[in-house]
From TrEMBL:
GO cellular component: extracellular matrix; extracellular space; membrane
Pfam families associated with the record: Glyco_hydro_79n
Keyword Kinase assigned: no
Family as reported in the entry's similarity comment: Belongs to the glycosyl hydrolase 79 family.
Protein's recorded name: Glycoside hydrolase family 79 protein
GO MF entry, a single one: hydrolase activity, acting on glycosyl bonds
Highest taxon of the lineage: Eukaryota
Gene3D superfamilies assigned to the protein according to its UniProt record, in alphabetical order: Glycosidases
First and last residue of the signal peptide: 1-20
Amino acid sequence: MEIKFMSTLLLCLLWMSAASSPLQPDHHKARRFSGGANESVTVTINLQQSVSTIGPHFVGVTIDSRRVWERWDSLDFTSKKVQNMARALTPTYFRLGGTMADAMTYVLGSATDLPESTVALNHSKFNMTEDQWVTVNEFSRTVGWDFIMDLNALKRNADGSWNPDNARQLLQFSADRNYTIAGFELGNEYESYQSVFNTTLSPGQLSKDMVTLQSLLAEFPQYYSAFIVGPESGDGDPAHFRG
Ligand SMILES: *[C@@H]1O[C@H](CO)[C@@H](O)[C@H](O)[C@H]1NC(C)=O
Ligand SMILES: *[C@@H]1O[C@H](CO)[C@@H](O)[C@H](O)[C@H]1NC(C)=O
Ligand SMILES: *[C@@H]1O[C@H](CO)[C@@H](O)[C@H](O)[C@H]1NC(C)=O
Ligand SMILES: *[C@@H]1O[C@H](CO)[C@@H](O)[C@H](O)[C@H]1NC(C)=O
Ligand SMILES: *[C@@H]1O[C@H](CO)[C@@H](O)[C@H](O)[C@H]1NC(C)=O
């Protein structure tokens, strides 16, 4: 996420709340416009009744995992301005994720060298340091965002199954510090694995990996009831939705 985007979003929200009240008493409004096929259509909007109500967490923010690789680029988590704008968006889900989540190793405290099983074709593998993890969690806690972590799905055992060892180190470290993590993802946009990482992840294997992730979360009272979101898709590839 760019902060530019965040302030634009904030303006949009302010604009929406200003523009949407109060509801006009003439509840049925009809407008005429020309459709794509030169066909005139009438749209009627009933402002008296809603079809459904969305929850308070309707705003979501992602900071791309690429920013970890870039050592946050120009993003300054300690800036009061950034923190105030972020706080104004609550309640909101905040996801650290994206393509490079699947190339990221977590190097924490006394962690020793880890077996590297990630195949990175277009992206080099990289480490997220303990400092970076602390920064992102402290920020999330300070501004009251509900954090979702996208875990590296390409940490693989020789038999192709997901290897949760590095994720376990991350969770142990986080549990020791009482970090609240609302939810977890496993990997990002599986349909692009071939072009980006020269590998594939079948829906069948992924569902087994999700069970492994669930067992991993169950090892930690703090994360036992965290939710798991997925499957991840950038283009709506139906394979992983049938899995
Ligand atoms: C709409 O009508 C115009 C003028 O008759 C025509 O040039 C255009 O191709 C039409 N567009 C579509 C999408 O049918
Ligand atoms: C990641 O950290 C490990 C362990 O500290 C180190 O051996 C490795 O060189 C690091 N990799 C990169 C790409 O910095
Ligand atoms: C975490 O929470 C426990 C129980 O509330 C508390 O005893 C402990 O000191 C906390 N640890 C840290 C690092 O904040
Ligand atoms: C990855 O690199 C290959 C070879 O250079 C290229 O054909 C492919 O488009 C790249 N994929 C992405 C997602 O950038
Ligand atoms: C992609 O993976 C295949 C099979 O594992 C391997 O033969 C090939 O060299 C890899 N391609 C690249 C560009 O790494």
